[in-house]
Amino acid sequence: MPSSDHETTIARQWELLRNHLPPRAPGKTSLQLRDALATAGHNVTKRTVERDMDELSRIFPIVRNERGTPYGWHWRENARFDVLGMDLSEAVSLGLMEDVLRQIMPPAFLSALEGKFSLAREKLAALPKIPHARWKDLVRYVPPGMPFIPPTLAPGVLPVIQEALLHQRQVQVVYHKVGTDEAKEYTLHPLSLIQQGARSYLVATAFGYDTPYQYALHRMASAAVLDESVKRPKGYSLDTFIASGAAQFGSGESFVLKAKVSEDLARLLEETPLSKDQKITTRSGDHTLTATVPDSWQLHFWIRSQGPAITVVKPVALRKSIIASLAETLGNYKG
User: What is the pTM of this model?
Assistant: First the structure.
């Protein structure tokens, strides 16, 4: 196709997209669209308009209304502004983010995004020869650690928690605490929602205290929004909560960790440090790590998972805790 013809086609189709497709059924027929184009200076046949609409509907959220004849073309409901604002990079980004967003977005927000998700999928499927459109098939995010299967949530729990967060209302849950045989009823003040690997946690206060704790959504048998407003602790912020290490099930306090590490672990930690003030010194082939870290269950778990690659020197209380844990582990293998 000559360059001038190609540019004319683009201009004509852009004219259709911008100005002549109605937002709802019954839509405009091919003849009506042809006449509208003629008024705008594009003199083409009805068959050309039909070819244009067939091509455009494979990429954009355009619907052919077949309930009566002649058929009419129109935008899919609530989709017109989406299509004019989305390019290929946005389609790829939405395709990559869709699975994650479905885990953390409230239903009302997801409903508004459904048109974008659908458009992104259709746009990528319609452009298989463009390398960038295949990016979603070429990359994956794989979280570190074991690939745990996400726990099952009781029906209705997540939407209720999201609604309570949005409207800052207290929530009543039937919660099965770890290490207990029976579930109990709790009245919680929702503050934040955290997605940690395969698990979702509600950060909330309870029992009149200001200290926020995490409550696993998969341990909630039921949840109901209450009329009472949430009482937020003074100065609370989600970023501060996470930075304190509490999201890793810690005390919120930090300490300086000193440990002997293997050469391989030293190299790994140089690439991905434990903290901004981390230092690794090497003398006579021995590698010593120092770093300010939050005191948390996750830290203890990580140290134990390294086996002989790390030996805690300080703090002494942590060293003793690790020794006791390793001794108990060794005892499980005796006999």
Answer: 0.58
